[in-house]
């Protein structure tokens, strides 16, 4: 609740393929007004029914992060390698999660 009333500050839209895999996630934000601006858009990639990575675009056009997902022979996720370009330089490894 904000200023004694409910205020919508964001919403998210998802798209899916025919197999039910999430293809995209678009975040919209309102910064105090009645309009919503597109923030980040995640695009997801799949191979053989498994998610293989994702990319994050700000404003729908500027690539700021990408990730590669790695699975073991049992089909379990073992690594998520994220590259980031939040600074003005090239994409750099930001975070690697090994399970």
Describe it:
With 99 residues, the protein is mainly β. It has one domain (10-98): Lipocalin (Beta Barrel). It contains no helices and 7 strands. Strands 1-2-3-4-5-6-7 form a 7-stranded antiparallel sheet, with no helix packed on it. The protein is elongated, with a radius of gyration of 17 Å. The protein starts with 9 loop residues before the first strand and ends with a strand. The model has no long low-confidence stretch (mean pLDDT 85).
Structural key phrases:
single chain, Lipocalin, mainly beta, 99 residues, 7-stranded antiparallel sheet
Contiguous low-pLDDT stretches (5 residues minimum) are: none
Q: State Rg.
A: 17 Å
The domain tally reads 1
- What's the architecture, going by CATH? Beta Barrel
Strand order across the biggest sheet?
Answer: 1-2-3-4-5-6-7
Order of helices and strands: EEEEEEE
Brief sketch in words of this structure:
This protein has 99 residues and is mainly β.
Secondary structure blueprint with pairings:
Elements: E1 10-16, E2 22-29, E3 37-47, E4 50-58, E5 62-71, E6 77-84, E7 92-98
Antiparallel strand pairs: 1-2, 2-3, 3-4, 4-5, 5-6, 6-7
């Amino acid at each position: 609740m904000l200023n004694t009333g409910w205020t919508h500050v964001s919403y998210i839209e998802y798209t899916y393929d025919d197999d039910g895999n999430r293809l995209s996630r678009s975040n919209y934000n309102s910064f105090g007004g009645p309009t919503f601006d597109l923030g980040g858009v995640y695009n997801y990639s799949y191979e053989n029914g498994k998610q293989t990575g994702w990319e994050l675009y700000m404003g729908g056009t500027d690539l700021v992060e990408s990730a590669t997902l790695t699975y073991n022979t049992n089909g379990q996720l073992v690594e998520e390698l994220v590259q980031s370009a939040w600074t003005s330089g090239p994409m750099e490894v930001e975070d690697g999660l090994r399970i």
